[in-house]
Each structure stands twice: as C-alpha cells, then as structure tokens.
Input
Amino acid sequence: MRRTLFVGAKEAMESDICAKTWKAFRKRLCGRQLLATSWRQLDIGVVGGGIGGMATVIALRRAGHRVSIYEQADLVGEVGASISCAANGTRWLHELGVDLKKGDGVVLRKLISRDWETGEPLSVYDLGDYEERWGYVHYMFQRQRMHSMLKDAALGDGEGLPAKLFVNHKCKGISASTGAIEFENSSSATHDLIIGADGIGSTVRSLLSIHTKKRPAETSCLHANVLTKDAVAAGLTDFKAKEHQKVLPGRRGRIAVYETIRLPRVTKVQAAATKAGYNINERIGFSSNTEVPNYSVMDEKAKLTIEEMMRISPISTVVTGLTSRQLRYVPPY
Output
C-alpha cells in the first residue's frame, strides 16, 4: 500500500494554498489517489548534508520521523558568501524552532545601488517597515554560519529525535524495490524513504535518469568577506551605516548573476534574478523604486516585485513519503 504523509496540510489549505492549487498539487503527488489518513513514523535517509539537506532534516525531525544524513565529504560545511533570507524564509525558521542567534544574521534595512566609480547612490529602497509589513525580518546570513545553525537544529536538542550524521558516505546506487542506498565506501543502508539533497551535481538525480545540463557561466564574480576596518585601511570608502545596508554596484559595475537558470523550467523568481545580473532595477526591491531617475525594466508587467514575492507561499508544509517498496521519483509540482 502506498503511504503518503502530509505535515500541516490542513493549515496550508486554510492559509496559503487555494483549493484549486491544492487539488492540482495533490493529483500530481498522489496520482489521483485519495490521501492516506493513517500515519506512522518513517525511517528516512537524506543524501546530502548542505543547507537544503539540513533544512529538510529539521522539518522531518519535527514531524516525528527518524532521519539519517549521508554526506560525501569528510566534513559538513558550506562555501560562498552571503545568502538572503526574506520574511517568507525567516517565518519557516521560526516555526521549525531554529535558534536564529546561532546564525548571527544581519537584518537588512536598505537596498542601495551605487555608482561603480564614485560610490554615489543611484537608487535607495528603504526596508525600515519590512517586519511590520511582512511579519518577519529579512536576514542576510553568511552561508557557513547559516549551515552551522541548521546543522545544530538537525542534530542537537529540540523537538523530535536528533538526526544521525554520516560523513564520507558518497552515494553510488539506490534500489527502488528495497529502499537501499549503496555507498562508495562499501557500506549500505535501508530506509522507508530516500530523499536526494546532494546539489546541482546530484548523484540521486542521475540514478533516476535525470541529468542536469551544465554550461559555463557568462559572467563571474569573486565574493569575499572583508572586515570594515581592513577595507578602510586599504583606502576604500566606508559605506557602513548605523544599520546594515546591502551595497550593490551600479549599472557600470559587474554584478554577480545570482543563480544559474535551472533547466528544464525557469520560474519567475529565477528569471528576475537573471535579469538583475544585467539591470539592477530588475532586482526585487529596486523593481518597486520607480521614482528614481535611472529606473528602467525590460517589461513593467512582467517584473517581479517585493510585494508579489511575499505572496508566494512555499509548499514546504507538505512532506510526501512512500514506502520502500514503492519508492520512485515524483516529478516537481
């Protein structure tokens, strides 16, 4: 019998997901079958211990399941600079009981676009009333600290059974009939449900015949974390204000492309991020700042605004599980 587990489904229907969307989502996951009303604790294996894997583990742990994490590296960590966590993300961190103090996040108060050569502000979008409007603050986390914060919530004290972490466990095979995972270190494990969270070069996806097409990025940007005092000592202008401001170079500067477009489909959020790599006015926040002299976007009707972004509701309240005998790939909604 196929078992489907829903966590917080009723609340999701009542608050964020309209009936029509929910019906389509349910058909997609359940193949037109009725939802199972029974619940049982599942033994779940998550392949990949990055930010996505740890966030998944926390949700499953809070829902009452036993979870094991398998990471291919000999240590669990992240690389990169900052990661943006808007109100709709901060909300879930609160609801999952994550200790946000451990992430040492900085609250975003303003978006400022500056001239690349002079440093003069070209566009300023004030976020002083952000928490009042959306209910939660907008954090900027250093990726390593955000990952450490999530790892502590997944493995440490708190609601549900602490997850178990296994490093040096690179997945090389999965059996859909038995729910077994084989690793390159000659070990294996069997679970009721297996979740792949092993990044863009995912082994799990390739085992399901889903092959990601990769291509070199057209632009690149070197990110670094530098102390303000060191930047000032090197002769750079001190743009630090009393409250944190995310400083972005103006049009004449090089802007990092926030996220490579994920094939086979491109969401509106990803499309907006890509366009922002070439025109900062396309970025969420600046796209609402229509009064500045240098404002222009490709298509006023197609732009993504901060108001629309806050209305996009993640369906992360829903967790789907299958028994090991019927484990298979479920296409994304």
